[in-house]
Amino acid sequence: MVDANLAVRPAPALLPALGAMTWLQALVALALFAPGVVAPRAHIEVWQLSMFSCAVFAVGIPASFWGGGFIARLGSLRIASLCATAIVVSMTLASFGSTAALLAAGLCLGLAFGPETPASAALLARLVTAERRAFVFSVRQTGNQIGAVCGSLVLPAVAIALGPAWCYAVVGACALLAIGLFEWLRPAYAGEVVPPPKLDLRARLALVTADRRIAMLALASMPFSATQVSLNTIFVTLGTRELGLSHIEAGMALACAQAGGLVGRLGWGLVAMRLNASRMVLVVIGFGMAACAALLGLDGAALGRSGQFAVATLFGLTASGWNGVFIAEIARLAPQDRIGETTGAVLTASYAGLLAAPALVSILDGAAGLGTAFFALACLALCGTIALIWEGHDKTRH
Questions:
Q1: 171 φ, ψ to 5°?
Q2: Has residue 30 been placed in a domain?
Q3: Number of domains in the chain
Q4: Which of 240, 317, 320, 386 has the most Cβ atoms closer than 10 angstroms to its Cβ?
């Protein structure tokens, strides 16, 4: 029923729900990164990757914004099953290989991408104590890195040995297995609760704008998300085209970045929990991702192999490591009976950054190259970090 509200019976165990929702995010990440990882073998151009990403986020934005109501009525785990079904359909479409099929796959994947984080936040928020929230949410967000690392290491080899279509088949098979898990767990997490009243567009926007702290989080998340998605989807092409890496080497460098993101999500969450300073942690992360994007964009080829792999790891540590602390901060600040809806509304801003990034990168790539595009992303990430600092400084003055 409604995972975002307090159930009338005692909350069930945390770990099974955490594992299921982590797997869901890993599946979404694996599906989202698959075209970019296999792009050199499948002859997918940058503009096609941008089109795919834009399609995902164009659908993901309204799916996230309005998904809170469906989460309230169907439950987080049923939403998870529907997300996994959308992944199966998306990968089936992508396997056809045409531009139109890739576009349709992106549109379908958006139906999974949008609701999965609000559904997870709604479920986990009622199962975890406030003290452990930042770390637990960070653990859940490692699903993104788990999916990305697996995709970066496995999918290029599968594409070379068997062809790109088999990469999509692997992702679809994993999603089918997940549906069985979600439906098996669902009865244990369905509580009898009173459905919340419906929220119209103005009420949903007010969830973000009524609290200045939440509004600034939403603003900063736009360039952070833009930087993250560009690392995940374009880095292999940047590596093979401008950094002098082979396809396998670029995939390994991206795997290092995602491994860094995995460590970052756990590490940043632990630091935020120990220091009780989530916003300060987000500021440090913002400076780090801006510095790494600038280094790679300005003269990444001069770094050498070891330097490139090191910077890629640090890039992932920051650009792919911020999400858990960010979601936990939203859950802390949101009305406790509106966590799913508030998370979805704030993520609308994040997804706007995801939607704009592929178009921006594609335009800058055509005009001045991918290096310039990554330097521009560094500047935007720096602006987002300054917004967080400014909000914190303004708060202390009052």
A1: -65, -45
A2: yes
A3: 1
A4: 320
